[in-house]
Write the structure tokens for this entry.
Amino acid sequence: MPGYYNTQHLADFGKIADVQPELGKKFFDYYASVFADGALTAREKSLIALAVAHAVQCPYCIDAYTQDCQQKGADFEQMTEALHVAVAIRGGASLVHGMQMREQVQKLGM
Amino acid sequence: MSVATATLQNITEDLANDRRTPRADRTLRRRCSPLASTAEQLRVLAAVPIEQKSARVEFETLAGKFGPAELEIFQVNVGKLCNMTCRHCHVDAGPDRVDAIMSDAIVDQVIAAIGRTRAHTVDITGGAPELHPRFRDLVEAAVAAGKHVMDRCNLTVLLLPRNKGLIDWFAEHKVEVVGSLPHYRRRNTDAQRGEGVFDRSIEAMRLLNAAGYGRGVPGRRLTLVSNPAGAFLGASQATAEREWRQSLDREHGVTFDRLFVLNNMPISRFLDWLQRSGNLEAYMQKLVQAFNPAAVSGLMCRNTLSVGWDGSLYDCDFNQMLGLEIALPDGSHISKFDEASWHARPIVTARHCFGCTAGAGSSCGGQTA
């Protein structure tokens, strides 16, 4: 095992469908449909993907959607704002759990 | 050179004193860059390792054979003089390019040829074509010959004091203004064209809108041209047009009629940038991987004649910038142009042509597939 992450994995991602090709095909077809222009534009979807990529901390997705966002016509500022949406939700999710802490403190404390 | 020398001197002095047009770069020529030579550009392109299944890939390998269609676009490049120096310029245009400006004699030959051609559109480009001393003569001659005229405009040139009144003159002559704006947001535009260019471009669009351009009025068409600010392909033209329309209207109150999305060609200053930023090989591979067979039939070299500032003929403006002259039996000069032999010519291609077949295709008329 050479290491946990490898740049070549992204280029070779399609090979995942070599085994159980039917499931692989269903996934990639679905994936392509998700990112097509619809009620949201392809650019907007790519920005969401970029934000989610940071939230799930996937280096492959960050690489792929940084390129995809640019190609779909998003600029650096839009991409950075999308990133802050992920940051705000992650941070907010931690902070809102503080409400549990408060409840316990208030219950147990004098 | 027989261009009215005094007028030209006025123009270059104006450009030298112009402190308002931002400049992003210096020309390759001024920098004495090796890439100022077309031979060096072709050598660099040929040296990029592009392989598929461990065989070297050339444009002809993938595109196969294709020939000319009807001649529709008569494109005239009046020279490399420009008030701007964008980082991606495929012409290496700039305020110092007084070495490459169409002479009076060639302008007269071009005007004569426009009178004879069956092409329906005369597309005038540069540099900034509006800076040529005989730009208006050329437009008037094309209009008199019943042609639709397109002016490839960098937008900021319209704000130069010497061009006051030009927009109204365009409207009188029903000239289509094809304005370059890489992106609908400031950052990407300024990164490519110079800090402050976006605001100047919006200011020019306001003047165009005030003259009736960009409002769906026939004869006052404002087309915008976008190209990527980096080593990636253009966005989908139809989607981008909707997004641009909304954003430019909402944020700046300006409108346009249509959007062309182009890919950047790996030549001249964009080639220089690719090389210096370490993106050349990956970009060439990206173009080849994105090769779209459906874009071949829409290639602009099939329906376009490109005339250079010295009267030389080419299959497109990119070939012109690489010095790849048209293959015509009577020689490649406007003074000897014969439309019948044009229809029988083989089209000249090289590796830069992958730029026009990548993704949704790319041409001076936008996406092709």
Remarks:
- Chain A touches chain B at residues 37, 41-43, 67, 70-73, 75-78 (CB under 8 Å).
- Chain A has a mean pLDDT of 94.
- Residues 76-108 of chain A form the longest helix (33 residues).
